Amino acid sequence: MLDHDTERPACGPASGHTDGAGGTTLITDLPYGPKAAEVAREAVAVALHGAEETLLDDARLITSELATNAFASGSPPLVLCVDRANPTTGSLEVEITVTDGGCSQRASSSPQAPGEEAESGRGLVIVEALADAWSLTTGTCGTRAWCRLTREVRTSTASA
């Protein structure tokens, strides 16, 4: 089993809940096929409805990469979990987890940038560049890719 972790212990996705502090969790199955990334992007857009466009763009791109990796390297089932919380006034924290049924290939301990002409292989490099923290745990019984995005929430200064 490989665990590449930049801040979070290797554990399963958060349990589904909605709490009174403005936190929400979306958990959904993804199709095991080429549509996994598209469905994942749409689910993230629902979970982050009303979030700033830059956060939404980063979250959709990351989720697309994680879902694509899960389909390309893993086995069914694919599951997406998106946790959204406001831990402090003025900030938004998003945790994205994609799990799959496991893979037979051992993953690299750190993302390697592919050659300039390569058509794939940039997924984890993108995740590492955009996320504030991330981890990848692989094994034959399951694979878990997790990341956190934390952004300051901008207040509108426009008057009505």
TrEMBL record:
Residues 37-143 form the Histidine kinase/HSP90-like ATPase domain. Pfam families: HATPase_c_2 (PF13581). Keywords: Kinase, Serine/threonine-protein kinase, Transferase. InterPro entries: Anti-sigma-factor_SerPK (IPR050267), HATPase_C_sf (IPR036890), HATPase_dom (IPR003594). CDD domains: HATPase_RsbW-like (cd16936). PANTHER family: ANTI-SIGMA-F FACTOR RSBW, ANTI-SIGMA-F FACTOR RSBW-RELATED. This is Diguanylate cyclase.
